[in-house]
Amino acid sequence: xxxxxxxxxxxxxxxxxxxxxxxxxxxxxxxxxxxxxxxxxxxxxxxxxxxxxxxxxxxxxxxxxxxxxxxxxxxxxxxxxxxxxxxxxxxxxxxxxxxxxxxxxxxxxxx
Length: 111
Description:
The protein is mainly α. Helices cover 51% and strands 0% of the residues. It contains 5 helices and no strands. It has helices spanning 6-16, 21-31, 37-49, 60-66, 72-86. Helix 3 (37-49) runs antiparallel to helix 4 (60-66). The longest helix has 15 residues, at 72-86. It is globular. The protein starts with 5 loop residues before the first helix and ends in a 25-residue tail after the last helix.
């Protein structure tokens, strides 16, 4: 409920993330429309922590919505979390800048 205080809406997001996958996704998608950026950012964090369900669904669905959020901090965090979720297994982490993916000799300036 949007009329509830922000602290209660944050608790609802946390509780929603503990539900079964389909129900959690529904709760998080609804909370992704909350007017408070702090709530939407917690939605992103909660979605990223959801394990993949047997049907293949995961919090990535919610993160894909949040990468278009009106708040730049929410957008950036959702994009970073989504990248981490979809980064191929076995690789340490996604590069933070495109140049980091290149060997030093291949970078502009050779550094």
